[in-house]
Amino acid sequence: MRDELGTRLKAFEGRSATVAGVGKDPVNAPMIRHWCEAMGDTNEAYTGPDAIAPPTMLQAWTMGGLSGHRGPTGRPGSSGRTEAYDDLLTLLDEAGCTSVVATDCEQEYLRPLRPGDEITFDTVIESVSERKTTKLGTGYFVTTRTDIRVGPDLAGTHRFRILKYAPARRREKPPRPRPVVNRDNAGFWEGVQEHRLLIQRCTGCGTLRFPWLPGCNSCGGPEWDTVEASGEGTVYSYVVMHHPPFPAFDPPYAVALIELAEGVRMISNVTGVPYDKVRIGLPVTLEFQAHDKELVLPVFRAGREAAV
To answer: pLDDT, tens digit, for every residue of 48-76?
Structure first.
């Protein structure tokens, strides 16, 4: 199938995106210091009277911030940017490729930059890919190449690649997995459907147990009845799930081992607070969460004070 949009986009290759752009600030020690502190880079080459700028700062000297650049005339907001790049992006927007993500960059260093250096730069649209389909959506990779100079000398080259794409349609979230119900735990799940949290109790020795089992761990007795939990408990332990992602869940989320007031422990989710506010010893209260018409699960809600 012929890609007519791709053909039109290819015509932009080799055209200028920025002509005679001027760095908003000269290379300077404060920006170098802030960069090194942020990166944790303590190389002595970046300090003292003979300091150079970290090579990876190359793009930083071309950026205009929120207030923009000054161009060759010194006018604020005059960056030397051409209409060609804007036209390219507009063409992609009109085709539905309204989202953008930076994918990677490549840098080549030819001479060190030192405090006081005034930089200029020119940018060319180096390449536009064929139409690509990614997990984010379908679109085109656009690569620009920026040549950065100090006076007539080329100091370095920065290639920057973005993906302009039409977002993929989100699939409908699948239903939450169902618990495995068998003859040993059916009574527990029947209680949950009635919004009751039932704990097994051995009729021989009185020991409470959870999860439900066919016999008592303490005395081995097979007979049992149930008591209904009060619903009060505390977080005994927890983990925060980040990976692997499951389509029915929204990580990150906390999975906690809850110690009930009756003394038994069960695994459940903690609601009512962000995952990073869950703590060992956090008081929680039982509630029942309906995920659909058929699935009800016991979860534990933290008090409002825990969210502060």
So the answer is: 999 999 999 999 999 987 776 654 444 44
